[in-house]
Amino acid sequence: MVERRSILTCPICSHRSVETMPVDACVWFYECRGCGATLKPKDGDCCVFCSYGSVPCPPVQDRNAPPCCHAT
Question: Does residue 42 contact residue 58 with C-beta atoms inside 8 Å?
């Protein structure tokens, strides 16, 4: 079973937010609800959920990752 909810933690202000992840797309940008910073994936990660989330994105969890997710 793929987990669709993840807790994103901002690396700048440590604000945490529960978000629902899309099952068929990578999220490359996310605006922190605490400080307003725009989060981008770390080098080698496909999306902000893989970089800052409590669980990786659904395609990576499912191992049926689209090409953008193969680097993780």
Answer: no
What the block records as the tokens of 47 is 């999306």
**How does pLDDT run across 28-66, given as a tens digit for each residue?**
999 999 999 999 999 988 899 999 999 998 888 877 666
Tell me the pTM.
0.84
pLDDT at 68 over 70: no
- Alpha carbon of residue 6 to chain centroid: 8
Q: Tell me, what DSSP letter sits at residue 50?
A: H
Strands 30-31 and 38-39: antiparallel
Q: Do the Cβ atoms of 50 and 20 come closer than 8 Å?
A: no
Here the tokens at position 64 are 């049926």
User: Integer distance in angstroms from the first to the last C-alpha of the chain?
Assistant: 19
Query: 31 has which bridge partners?
Result: 38
